[in-house]
Write a structure and sequence with these properties.
With about 110 residues, this protein is mainly α. It contains five helices and no strands. It has helices at about 10-15, 25-35, 40-50, 55-70, 80-105. The protein starts with 9 loop residues before the first helix and ends with a helix.
């Protein structure tokens, strides 16, 4: 029987952009997707509040996710780079939230 969901299928590879060729924001969103983290800016920032916003905090989250959620099967790779990308995105999100609050205060 033919496997219609073959990951090596040319159709799927044609639309997949290699992680290494993505920009920092796309790498951050890719990482959040791998971790199953979805939502708007406020929800994502709120999710990371108890964890922390630093690269080290995010790297630790990815390592823990690899061990506990994935059991070491097909772990998320490029941990340091992904942590850097997510920290960068979170920094931008926090700035956006602060600017929005300042704008509301001046109205």
């Amino acid at each position: 029987m033919e496997n219609y969901f073959d990951d090596d299928d040319e159709y799927y590879r044609r639309f997949e952009v290699p992680y290494e060729t993505k920009g920092i924001i796309d790498r951050a969103w890719d990482t959040l997707q791998c971790l199953g983290i979805h939502g708007d800016t406020d929800e994502i920032v709120e999710f990371f509040e108890p964890i922390g916003y630093s690269e080290t905090d995010i790297a630790n989250l990815i390592v823990e996710f690899n061990e506990l959620a994935l059991g070491g099967v097909d772990p998320i790779d490029n941990i340091d780079d992904r942590a850097h990308a997510v920290a960068y995105l979170l920094g931008n999100m926090l700035e956006e939230i602060e600017e929005h609050k300042k704008h509301q205060e001046t109205e």
